[in-house]
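Quick look at the format.
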Amino acid sequence: MSTHPLPLDGITVVAVEQAVAAPFATRQLADLGARVIKIERPDGGDFARGYDTAARGLASHFVWCNRGKESLAIDLKDPRGLAVVRRLVADADVFVQNLAQGAAARLGLDAATLCAAHPRLVAVDISGYGADGPYAHKRAYDMLVQCEAGLVSVTGTPGQPVKAGVPAADIAAAMYAFSGVLAVLLRRATTGLGGPVEISMLEALTEWMGHPLHHRMHGGETPARTGLAHPVIAPYDVFETADGEQLLLSVQNDREWRRLTEQVLGRPELADDPDFATNTARTAHRERTDAVVAEALATLTAKAALAGLDAAGIACARLNTVADVAAHPQLAARDRWREVESPVGALRAMLPPITLPGGAEPRMGAVPALGEHTEALLRAVGMTDEQTAELRRDGVIA
């Protein structure tokens, strides 16, 4: 049986990108079949290459965000380098950039300028705070935007706000850029016109703040930081088992509470006790509610507790470490791991979450070395070996 081709086969993307937001967006496009040409500085390239050396000498951020791309190391400040990129853009379907605010416009690589010259092009500007307003030129790294968007204020314990453990602002911006590109490509398929896409990290992450933001704006109190507990549902927290593991469980309604009391806690009388019978009562008496659950689970091993909770239809989960996730039985059973080539050999990576049954498997290409594809790409735009040698001699390419 023939499989459907990857949906972005034949699409070419040129990206002047760095760090996480734009690279993660374009990696999604590469996984779905697009050809992604990554423009990097000759003197070190994308600075994410230097974040760490955890991936057998490569930076873990870079490995995560840049598989399946071609690396062109070229100096955009040199007119010859900029001319090469302009030639690549003229033949591209998509252009993505996340340079510092104003830098792309000075090079003529902002979305508005490029789309005016190339009406079929989909051009994406990713910035921290947007193209205008009082914050437009403010530096915008992930943790700074997490603070500005209020995410830090609702994450952590009552006494200590904390950032998210992953770059949430970068990822939010990346995924809206990815979906924005797909939307405009769809429009182009019917109208023939591409167009600009603008993504702000602040606006992307503020959208993700939907529940606490709407709760507060429309008359409620700002949700309290409650660690792993839920601010308005009880029991919904982490509890320790007899063998020292930690399990999170969640009771979403009073029917589930009754099943928990009868089948796991061994305290069926609590199902009708007015101090516990409703979620409102359990939340009002949260410490007592949690103490009852904690006492019961402390007598069970994690295996026994999970079996009992599952049998009773109570939502539950292990509090896994990162190492546990890498060995997760569900991911293994669904065959979600692959190997991706890189300058240091094969590296383990997870299949993208977008699964297309009946279609070709995502294209998880190699992680490129800096400038690995420079000469081939210059030849493709008509440069001679002598011209390439001159650019290399002058430090314009690497």
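Next, a different chain entirely:
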Amino acid sequence: MAQGKPARAVVVGGGIGGLTAAAALLRRGWEVTVVERAGSVEPVGAALSLSPNALRALDVIGAGDRIRDLGAPLGDGGVRTPRGRRILRTRVDAATSRFGEPLLLLHRAALVDALIALLPPDTVRTGAPATLTDAGDAGRPARVSTPDGELEADLVVAADGIRSAVRRKLFPEHPGPVYSGFTAWRLVIAVPDVECASQETWGRGSIWGTHRLNDGRVYCYAAATVPAGEHASDERAELLRRYGDWHRPVPDILAAARPEDVLRHDVHHLARPLPAFHHGRVALLGDAAHAMPPRLAQGGNQAIEDAVVLAHHHTDLPAYTAARLPRTAYVTRQAVRASRVSLVAHPVAVAVRNAGLAVLSAAGPGLLMRGFDGIADWRPPQAPYAAEQAGADQQ
């Protein structure tokens, strides 16, 4: 880096993690360029849940209040059987009571728009596939090749997703993602005349979730344990086959959906943690570093955490790895366990699982939130939260 010039970062990938990292580094005085392979940063997906840990991280970059305004708190609901029997009750205020913030749901596009609004014009270059050509070291910058030429960087942020080319280049011996054992469907549609509580339904090797967004649309997701690579020519018809006889409002929602409304993808995760989240002048974050199953809804949340912690340790990448690798490995393990519990298929295992949920529900709706201890109570290292916590500890 030349004397007197701002440090320069190149962020590879314009998803949630990459955009959050760009905003966080800009607040640290970096010059930032985001290169995104796709023709736009409009996300492919539906909605996502933001838990208190991510909301605190978003406060660090000045986006927390905006996201709170956009998000819909996950309402009173719980878990039912396919016939409609409630086996677990949840309360909308349970997360707030335990962690000081609610669990919020919002469309991915709303979060991306809020993050883009924090960046100067022309920060993001779309239609720009990038290749890491040199990871750099203490004596030389990293280099990234793009269609518009090569970019030099004091820091490269690899936010290029679960199939990260940067990860493969840096850690060629790592086995990469493995199939998590289930496929997932998602859709966001308008069903104004259908009553939709915030709830999940757990069957044998399959689940269904329904939640209403702030704009009135309904976000739904489903998952089923099937061999990898199985896909239908009409995924709405496949959902009807699997879930059409489940309790209402599931059949009502499917009746209102069109085939083009349904997204499907097999779920993969990084079962083996990487040896580090950095190499040379390159740092990995989000799915590129620690892809996890979605059952705890922590994939995007952990990417947001990564971004603000990376900005905090921007001159000390080993410290970034030390802060993030153990935590994300733990969250990934918890997400894998949660997937196995919710998607058990053997009738005896299903009966035991449902009985356990009923006992948990009887003990109190807030007890379920204990499963998020060590996850949702995380606070970023930057002010204001680190300073507030330190003050509280001294009282």
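Residues 10 and 156 are 5 Å apart (CA to CA).

See the schema section for token definitions.
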